[in-house]
């Protein structure tokens, strides 16, 4: 029986979305702009990387062709010029939001047709009743922040005051999120998680997708740094995803990285949550080696988004792409005959763009495996075609959305 591995490179969009102007993102193109910056000499950092974007494996898997099909422009250094291996195309998001749950749920067969709630970019950002209830139920002396912010900037700004006063830093973004940052040692990690559980209950009324714990360490003298103990408290998908369908069909499911959180731990099988792209990819490859026939591994690599996209760090993003690309042969070596791999993304996060938020973009769809013929699968009108293709490949009927290209 065949097996499948789906890897989401979080935020590695490839531009071209027709509805980008509605999000303020007309022209945003994560992959294309990184390649252009690198070719123009703007993607280098001493000790990290220099020169044109070097992605030989993803180029041979059709990344440049997917970019060209998406935007009409072939990014520098991504033209395969020779033999391709695998099937390539790009996906259009039908969900309204450009957030992580919308992207992942749609990939897994559940496009998000409803509107999430969002907190306005005002001061304060949160409704008074919500703030008051959080303070009361969380037994807090108050909160700091209460605004749209970048998570690293807001702990630099308010970390010292947080340590002094014991007030957690509560902030949001253009996404449907309520984020709570607190010091792991002075506030306490478990106390932060408990506070987020309270926040989760309070946020349901506002249709907020996620409450996110953002623990950090450090001191005013040394500066503050977020730790790997981030935890997302998500609302569950409104109907069965491919994870539910596979679980009900008694298939083996392994989820790596943020996937468990994103799907509110429903149908997520064995969850593995190491810290960082490299460790998550290692875990996904190890899971694939042990995966029984008919099984499915679903992995998310979040560093592209959280460490480089939101931080608008082009050299860092380029280096992370190159690090992933170098390990593609390792993925291929773990494959058995009949296995299917799909590499894709959930939204964009153009590091050359203004602000620090996600960008509305198409996503690449790169599919490979020994039995996967070289093929152009073209423009897919929903990310859900990926989930549908996984189910078709695994021989499980699709009760949900999406059209398989297989
Ligand atoms: O700036 P940080 O805290 O990384 O926040 C980012 O992370 C959130 C969840 O992915 C997004 O909504 C964005 O605001
Ligand atoms: Mn994401
Ligand atoms: Mn993000």
UniProtKB/TrEMBL annotation:
Residues at which Mn(2+) 2 binds: 305, 310, 358
Domain named Metalloenzyme: residues: 3-396
CC per GO annotation: cytosol
Annotated localization: Cytoplasm
Free-text cofactor note: Binds 2 manganese ions.
First and last residue of the signal peptide: none
Keyword Nucleotide-binding: no
Family statement: Belongs to the phosphopentomutase family.
Role description: Isomerase that catalyzes the conversion of deoxy-ribose 1-phosphate (dRib-1-P) and ribose 1-phosphate (Rib-1-P) to deoxy-ribose 5-phosphate (dRib-5-P) and ribose 5-phosphate (Rib-5-P), respectively.
Name of this chain's protein: Phosphopentomutase
Organism: Microvirga mediterraneensis
Protein encoded by which gene: deoB
């Amino acid at each position: 029986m065949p097996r499948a591995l789906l890897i989401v490179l979080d935020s590695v969009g490839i531009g071209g979305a027709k509805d980008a102007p509605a999000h303020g993102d007309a022209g945003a193109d994560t992959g294309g702009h990184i390649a252009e910056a690198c070719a123009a000499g703007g993607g280098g950092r001493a000790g990290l990387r220099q020169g044109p974007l070097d992605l030989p494996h993803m180029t041979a898997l059709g990344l440049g062709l997917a970019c060209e099909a998406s935007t009409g422009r072939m990014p520098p250094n991504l033209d395969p010029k020779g033999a391709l291996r695998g099937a390539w195309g790009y996906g259009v998001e039908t969900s309204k939001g450009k957030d992580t749950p919308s992207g992942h749920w749609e990939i897994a067969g559940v496009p998000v047709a409803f509107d999430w709630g969002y907190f306005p970019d005002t001061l304060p950002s949160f409704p008074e009743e919500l703030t008051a209830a959080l303070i009361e139920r969380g037994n807090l002396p108050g909160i700091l922040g209460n605004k749209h912010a970048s998570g690293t900037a807001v702990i630099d700004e308010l970390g010292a005051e947080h340590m002094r006063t014991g007030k957690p830093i509560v902030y949001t973004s253009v996404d449907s999120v309520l984020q709570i940052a607190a010091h792991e040692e002075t506030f306490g990690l478990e106390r932060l998680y408990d506070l987020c559980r309270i926040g989760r209950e309070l946020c349901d009324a506002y249709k907020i997708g996620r409450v996110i714990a953002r623990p950090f360490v450090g001191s005013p003298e040394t500066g503050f740094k977020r730790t790997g103990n981030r935890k997302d408290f998500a609302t569950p998908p409104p109907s069965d995803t491919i994870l539910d369908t596979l679980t009900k069909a008694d298939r083996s499911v392994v989820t790596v990285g943020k996937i468990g959180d994103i799907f509110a731990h429903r149908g997520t099988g064995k969850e593995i949550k190491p810290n960082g792209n490299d460790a998550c990819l290692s875990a996904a490859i190890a899971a694939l080696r042990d995966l029984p026939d008919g099984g499915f591994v679903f992995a998310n690599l979040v560093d592209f988004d959280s460490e480089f996209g939101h931080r608008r760090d082009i050299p860092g993003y380029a280096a992370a792409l190159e690090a992933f690309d170098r390990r593609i042969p390792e993925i291929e070596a773990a494959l058995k005959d009949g296995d299917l791999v799909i590499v894709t993304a959930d939204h964009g996060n153009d590091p050359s763009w203004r602000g620090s938020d996600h960008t509305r973009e198409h996503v690449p769809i790169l599919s490979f495996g020994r039995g996967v013929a070289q093929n152009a699968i073209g423009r897919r009108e929903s990310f859900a075609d990926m989930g549908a293709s996984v189910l078709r490949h695994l021989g499980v009927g699709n009760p949900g959305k999406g059209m398989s290209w297989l």
